[in-house]
TrEMBL record:
This is HTH arsR-type domain-containing protein. Residues 7-89 form the HTH arsR-type domain. Pfam families: HTH_5. InterPro entries: ArsR-like_HTH, HTH_ArsR_DNA-bd_dom, WH-like_DNA-bd_sf, WH_DNA-bd_sf. It comes from Thermosporothrix sp. COM3. One of its GO terms (molecular function) is DNA-binding transcription factor activity.
Amino acid sequence: MRTWNQRFFTSTRGRIIEILRQDSCTVDDLARKLQLTDNAIRAHLTTLERDGLVQQNGVRRGSSKPASVYELAPSAEQFFPRAYGTVLHTLITTLAEQMDEEELIALLRLTGERLSHRLGLPSGDVPTRLKATVRILQELGGAAHLEQHEDHYCIQGQQCPLAAAIEAHPAACQLAEAFVSELVGVAVQEQCELDETKPRCRFLIPLTP
């Protein structure tokens, strides 16, 4: 079964993204490579610019009028495979072989705390920090949203940024719990859903910590 990314790259916009990842191009360059009209390319570029995937970067002077040069925007890198998941899985496996479970959990929690400080701790009261934490998790690929219940808040994710490691190493959730606790400023309770096909992050935060 093809993934969503694979299907995207068979589309014209996906092919434009792939071309721009290799080199900056003008409308004429893209039209020639894709054998499309200039107007068709401009329409696709307008959509890609609107979605924050492509950006203009200067002009190229030729025999006629200057032509805008397009390049890939940083946010477009999300479409390309990375080695992070494989590296994380292998790293935790190696650490688990070298230390006992208590030491591993302590190291993972320390990593989560340091990561939160590296990204910048939100300021404000708990509700404000919760909203900022959800935004950070979304930026990391967690697809999270905030829910408020009678006696607690819940940060519910539809995906897990650590999914590549979670199945073999559920202790990796300790990293996430420490990370979120530091961001929110109070202790949170990790209750992640460890479905082997699609693990989801879930953190509970008391209304009155």
